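Lecture notes, unit on protein representations.

Consider one protein chain, 154 amino acids long.
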Amino acid sequence: MLYDVEEDYELFVAPQIGEYSSKKGGASRHLMVNGSSERIAIKIKCSNNNAYRVSPVYTIIEPGFSQRLQVVRDPGEPQVDKLILLYKKTECKNAHEAFYESGEPRNENKRTMIALVTHDRPELLPKPPQPKPTNKPANLTNIYTQRIHRYKPK
């Protein structure tokens, strides 16, 4: 099973896979939802910080609320990477403080993952045909007559 609801009931993340082009790079958006009855502090770690930019890195989500996660990938070699979302229940005002400065034990951190897949596939849709350049001025009469002659049955 790809997603175990019982395990990650407190923090729901969708989609759990981000796909990017190795030639163009790209971006993906993910939704994080706090399904618990307490505040959750989240810290996001990436396996390849040279190729990816993540926003936000630290955040707090109130019970029943959601937060968008933006992941941007630069062009580069095709490979599989991952984002680790560390999260824990907290009463802190600041997510960074919840992970580093609070007296709460670190072993209470739970985690979930987003797979980041960069592929080298060709474009699926062909490029649309480019119109032929003409020396005639572009006006409605010329456009209309070109279309009539182009689609005239033989």
